[in-house]
Structures are given as structure tokens and as C-alpha cells.
Amino acid sequence: MWPGQHCPTPVHYFVRLLHERGQLRRCYTQNIDSLESLAGLPADMQVAAHGNFERAHVIDGGPDVPLAELRAAVMAGGEALQQLRRKHGGLVKPSITFFGEALPERFGELVPDDFDVCDLLLVIGTSLKVHPFAALADMPNAGVPRLLINREQVGSFRFGSVADGATDVFLGGECDAGVRALAAHCGFDCELERLIAAGPPSVARA
After folding, report:
1. Which residues are the active-site residues?
2. Which of 1, 124, 126, 183 could form a disulfide with 192 if both were Cys (CB 3.0 to 4.6 A apart)?
3. What is the distance, to the nearest Å, from the Cα of residue 82 to the centroid of all Cα atoms in its chain?
């Protein structure tokens, strides 16, 4: 699970491209893998609702711990983990949200303003079963269009024709194919493909 084992997908680069085009208010993600950051999306444009591996701390409100220390201990296992525990006075974990823990303060701080000005909601690759995150799909004001790119229909979306008053659209199938189709429809597919081909910014500069 530790970041570094996987690369961003076209979806991650699509979100970055929306930001670079000035069309992204915020990316709310349930993912803990930090692939949004690896794809080049600035931290202030993200809300990692379930945390991620970019920080570490002693559990139960303890102090921050250098992430490199935790990673080294996890990779070594056994006694290295116990040494880390003794050094910092408690169990250490990445700053990810476990079941029963509160979501990061940033989530509650940004949701009201972000969703009040939302004029299009993209929902990509989710079961919409984990709350309170799943409730975000219902946060935009009435009449705001919502596009679900997913393998299956989920949540409270109301699909139908515009003539019937529906404002929700379902694009079924794989998410990577879906964002590529959307980019092509909007006329910036070449920009997306250039980002994908370049890869993570840190790798591209190496």
C-alpha cells in the first residue's frame, strides 16, 4: 500500500489538467495513495478526505513523526517498528483516517464554500457507500449538473433526458476511458495525452 508502488492514471492527469485550465474548484478524494500529488495536482487543490501517506504521527493525538522514519520501520518490520514506538512514545501511523476516526478538519472547512459555488460536479470511480464522503454527491445546489463516470450507477443520481428536467449524466465503463472521452468532447484531449505521456513531474525532470 505504501506510495511509490503505483503510477497516476489518466484520471489523475485529467484532474490536474482541469486545474491548469482554471476549471477546477477542488478535488475531493477518498484515495490515500497520494497519486493526485504525484500527478502534479497542488496540495491546496486537494482534500484528502481519508488522509494519505504524506505525513505521519503518533496515534491518539500524538506529535508528528518524520515520514521517512515510519517508512523505514515499516519496510524493515519487526524490531524496527518497536524501536520507533519506543522512540516516539506510542504507536505511529500515516495520517490516514481509520474506521471510526474523524475526517480531517480541512474537509469540514472547505465543503460549504466549495459546493455552494459548484457549477458542475464530476463523480469518478466510486461506490458512494462510505459516509460522510458519499454525501458530497448531493451537496451541489439544485439544478447543478452532475456527471458520473463509473462502472455502475450509484448514489441518488437522477438520469434521464434534459427535457424531463434531469441534470445528471451517466458515462458507464472504465474511468480512464471515460475521462479521455470527456476530454475529446471538450477539445482538450491532446493536452491530456501530453500530460499522460510526460508522466509525474518529478520523473519528467529527472
Report:
1. 50
2. 183
3. 32
